[in-house]
Design brief:
With 315 residues, the chain is of the alpha/beta class. Helices cover 25% and strands 26% of the residues. The strands form three sheets. It has a seven-stranded mixed β-sheet with strand order 5-2-1-6-7-8-9, with helices on one face. Strand 6, helix 4 and strand 7 form a beta-alpha-beta unit.
């Protein structure tokens, strides 16, 4: 079977899935794309289509946007494309067995973690917040569980101490595009042996909310730094100053700095940054965004919004 004779249905939704879809379109024949329904977005609540849908339309690929993937009508429509293989990447829905039974080669998922760690919908955020030293992408055979299928290939890379979630997103998104082609070619050539996951080693990565980004200044400076970069760019770590919400985008921790007798969250110095005490060490806020303002470096913020030493953040 030549590559272009391999017919694939691709299922994905956000920007993260775009490199995987582009790689599939370049190397095989994508006969249909399945993605989530359009949703209102932005201040005007205008309907916006998923990035994967926009790319599919640009390439002239039929698009399906089912409210649910569990209807007989959807299963029948999927069968009509005669696909050999289904590929999913950040689709956002768990597929039922009736869907998984359709393609003769099965369904492959591109997941943004080194499974079995960080199963779930938000691995990118949790990996950075937890201060992982290594991150990666795994391809796996999809079953009816949440990222529980047998693993096929992995790609791993070191994670820098200042790398943000947004940067990890872009790097692993591109890696996913390469890994899916390597995986499919390995399957066609018979060089890949699926490896079962060890469930006892599994960790979970549930959805992230704005509330998860609220800074607890009693935690160590290193943990706060990881939270800040793990929430950058969205939804952003945050604190309050005199009732004003501040979004924090960049910090520098100093675990050895003395906090004296200052309570966690106390501003002890300002200048080209904002020095704040924590439960262990001091953290310097380097970039932030005031309420109703633009994102800027700390020095620019302080020019228009001076903060007195002794101010306690988060109260």
């Amino acid at each position: 079977m030549s590559n272009k004779n391999l017919k694939i249905v691709f299922m994905g939704t956000p920007d993260f899935a775009i490199p995987t879809m582009e790689a599939l379109c370049e190397n095989y024949t994508v006969v249909s794309v399945v993605t989530k329904v359009d949703k209102p977005k932005g201040r005007g609540n205008k309907m916006a289509s998923p990035p994967v849908k926009d790319l599919a339309i640009a390439k002239g690929i039929p698009v399906l946007q089912p409210e649910t993937v569990k209807t007989e009508e959807f299963v029948k429509e999927l069968k009509s494309f005669g696909a050999d293989l289904f590929v999913t990447c950040a689709y956002g829905k768990i597929l039922p067995q009736a869907v998984l039974d359709i393609p003769p080669m099965g369904t492959i998922n591109v997941h943004a973690s080194l499974l079995p760690k960080y199963r779930g919908s938000a691995p990118l955020w949790h990996m950075v917040i937890n201060g992982e030293k290594e991150v990666g992408v795994t391809t796996m055979l999809t079953d009816i569980g949440m990222d529980t299928g047998d693993m096929l290939l992995k790609y791993s890379m070191p994670l820098g101490e200042d790398t943000t979630m947004g940067e990890v997103h872009d790097m692993l998104s591109k890696a996913g595009g390469k890994l899916i082609v390597d995986t499919i070619e390995g399957i066609l050539q018979g060089t890949i042996t699926p490896v079962p996951q060890q469930d006892e080693e599994a960790t979970h990565a549930p959805m992230i909310s704005k509330e998860d980004g609220v800074i607890n200044w009693s935690k160590p400076a290193s943990a706060i730094h990881n939270l800040v970069r793990g929430m950058n760019p969205f939804p952003a770590a945050s604190t309050t100053k005199d009732g004003e919400v501040l979004k924090i985008y960049a910090t520098k921790p100093d675990m050895d700095a003395s906090t004296g007798d200052k309570a966690p969250g106390t501003v002890i110095k300002t200048g080209d940054g904002i020095w704040v005490t924590t439960g262990q060490g001091v953290i310097v806020i380097k970039e932030l965004q005031g309420q109703g303002a633009k994102r800027m470096d700390a020095k620019a913020y302080l020019n228009g919004h001076p903060i007195k030493e002794g101010t306690v953040l988060g109260k």
